[in-house]
Amino acid sequence: MGDTDKDLVYSESIKAGKRIYYFDVKQSRNGDRYIAITESKKINEGTMDNPRFVFEKHKLFLYKEDYEKFVDALMKTLDVAKGNAPAVASATENSESAAPVASAQAEVETDASVDEEAEDKAEKKSFLDKVKDIF
Predict the structure, then answer these.
(1) Does residue 84 carry a pLDDT above 70?
(2) Which of the four, 2, 16, 56, 88, has the lowest number of CB atoms within 10 Å?
(3) Which residues pair with 27 in a beta bridge?
(4) Please, which residues bridge with residue 43 across strands?
(5) How far apart are CA 117 and CA 121, in angstroms?
(6) What is the model's pTM?
């Protein structure tokens, strides 16, 4: 299967400085959809007098059987990165062993914070939520 426009079902890009992130939903020959996330970074391999720009690309392919696990892990990671949740697992721990700790922490939240979180999610639908709606 080639990387052609006919394989592309949906695309969204995010510009971030010298980087561009592409979130593409593609369809394989057998009709299965998958997500391709690409980071493209502009790099000057030339000199100041003679610039030669190239794009370094890194791709991540996400298949349907992993969507839920990927989204759950990403959402937990974003919560910790934003300071909305404490870090409960180290990089060497199994993510399944951290799940009881994370769920226990969620039970401690007050009703007010749960209501605020629900309102925030309703107001701002993320790209991942949009992709989940496609499937």
Answers:
(1) yes
(2) 2
(3) 33
(4) 54
(5) 6
(6) 0.58
Looking at the DSSP bridge assignments, the partners of residue 20 are 15, 40
Return the pLDDT at 86.
83
**HEC letters along 30-55:** CCCEEEEEEEEEEEECCCCCCCCEEE
Cα distances (angstroms) measured from residue 106 to each of 9, 61, 79, 124: 36, 30, 12, 21
Count of structural domains within the chain: 1
**What is the amino acid identity at position 2?**
G
Q: Which of these ranges, 30-34, 75-79, 114-118, has the smallest mean pLDDT?
A: 114-118
Query: Which helix H or strand E contains 74, and what residues bound it?
Result: helix 67-81
Domain containing 80 equals 5-134
Count CA atoms closer than 13 A to 98's CA, side-chain side.
15
Q: Token pair of 115, please?
A: 């209501």
